[in-house]
Each structure stands twice: as C-alpha cells, then as structure tokens.
Design goal:
There is one protein chain. This protein folds into two domains: 160 residues, no CATH class; 178 residues. With 369 residues, it is α+β, with helices and mostly antiparallel strands.
Amino acid sequence: MEHEFTPQIFEILKRDFGKKADFVFESSPLIQYLNIKTRSATRGSKSRSSFANLYAIYVLVEDYLNHGFEKNKNYENYEGAKFVDLFRRQRQLPFGEKLQNHALNHRMNEEFKKYFPHVDFVPILRDPQTNRYWINENLLKVQGGRKTNNISKTVISIIEHYIEVKKQSFQAFIETCERLKVIGQDNDPNLSDFIETVLAPNADARMFEIVSYAILRYYYHDQVIYFGFDPDNIQPENLKLFKTGRTNANDGGIDFVMRPLGRFFQVTETLDVKKYFLDIDKIERFPITFVVKTQTEIETIRGKLREGAKKQYSVNAIVEKYMSCIEEIINIPVLIERFKEAQEQGYLRLILDEILTQSKVEFNLEDVE
C-alpha cells in the first residue's frame, strides 16, 4: 500500500539504513503496519488517525529504548513494563489524552494479525497475571545477510513524524476556521465551500463527525415540540443535540443524543452491515439514526442493509426488528442540504463557532467551559 505519507517513511528508512531502505521495508511487517496506519496523515484520507494502536507500539518501543535494549541485547530477561506506566505515557502524547486501554490489551494485536495472517509474531506480549508488557523483539529485528538491523529507533521516528504531520494538519484546519470567521459576508462562497470540503467522502473521519454535529445541532435547534406530563401543562421545548464525547470514544455506539426526544445518532463511514447491527445491539436495539460518510443514495443504503440482514438472519421477524431500529439515515447530500437550510436561516457563524470549539476540544487545544 502506497499513500501520501509513504515517501516520508522511506525518507526515514533511507536516513537510518541507506541503500537497505527498500529491503528493510519489504522485510519488516511492523514497518509495513505503520505504513498502513499512517495513511490518514493528510486531511483527505478516509481513515481515522489510528493513534491508539500507534501509541501502543510507541510506548513499548520507547520503553525498550529507554532501557538500552537495542544495545544490551538481553531483553528476554526484562521483567516487562507496567501497564499503568504505559497507559500514563500514552495519554501524555499529543491527541492521546482520552485513549482507552483496548489497543494495549488486544485490539492492536488482532488488527496486526488481520493484515499479516502469515506472520508468526504479534507485536505486543503480555503477562495477564503480572500486568507486564513487552514489545515483541522479533519484529524489531530485520535480518540482512550477516547483519541484524534493529528498527526500534526508526519505528519511533516514523510515529513521531506522523504525529507532527497530523498536528500541522489540524492546526491548519483551526487556522482556516478562524480565518473564515472574520469574512464579512455569510454568503461568501469560501464559507460554504469549506464546509462541503470537510463533508467530502474522502475527508478526515474525525472532522466529518465534528462538522456533522455542528450542522445538525443548528438544523434542529430552532425546531419546537410540545412536551409535558399532563394535558394542562404542556410546554414548548426546542430540540437540543448533544455530542457525547470525543470521536473514537468508547461510548457504546452513541455519538450524539437529542433532547427531549431521546434520539440516538451514530456517525459511520462504512456500509458494513455487521457494524450497523453491532451498534444497534450495543444499545439494546433502541432506534438509532446513522450519519453516513457517503454519497450513496439513502434507499440504496437501506437496501444493502436489508440484504445483509437477510444473509445474516434467515428469520424475517429478526430482519424486520433490526431494520425498524434504523430510525433515519443521513448521508452527505442530506447533510449539505441541511447545512444550506441552516445557512439560509442565519446560523452559519454559529456552525463555524461550534466546529472551532469542538475541534479544539478534540485535539486538546482547549476545553469547553
């Protein structure tokens, strides 16, 4: 797999290994895995930033280097790194403040095996009884003739460079938001062009979620329903959309919640049927609205989900139960349409402010009061 960040990986390999750069890349599943996980370095990638799995590798390789094992060559006798130390270090890294423990415990290894099923080693070794961790040193050594090349420092360099590129990308996004805020006319095409760019199918997934939230919040916020416990005490209430946490959070499949209706929203970029039904199962088959990063027509999406449900569950009653849990599907054309409606109602500045606020929170630039 080659993408826009791949040449930068090769620059680091050439710096560290010279003419052996190509050989090291082809011989190292771990470097190839880093190449796969860094394809979102530019803002136009479909993939998420993958910090959890990358940081699981980073903190273990960093611990390996901090103890000098790339030189001492007695790693097999090391007692292992403590989970609490690794976890704390992950959260000290840029974008790592809200990371969970799943990557260290199993998720990173499972994904690695998916990409490299024929490799005999997994990257992370763990003793559940002592809660100690090791990086699999076999994956840090690339045998080239009589010489063994240790790639531990290269792994650190690749991940650190990726972090820097992501920081620059997100900072540029923040600066664009700030610059657009001072444009005099709300009908300036630069404003709407910017929003529609972030809603493109190949846009960064986290930014797509943030912009979707900002649009939907102001699309719904002036809609009124009448709510009360008895007919004589009915009160008007505006619909309010709340973001439940950071993107990629372990929140049980709920990205947004609407009050007072109690609607659940999940943002996704896949048309994988199993993912939709997993989200539905996680919230006990409560109705859910899916915001999908695709240009595919809504009826086509529903059709694919129904076909997938029929393949997975042969009983019609079960199929209908799952399909009835899909309250609404919102695709990119619907989001753009709702953005234009909100813009016409004068909410463009508020949408930009919300995007800016949520972006700063997402990337740990500031907290929302």
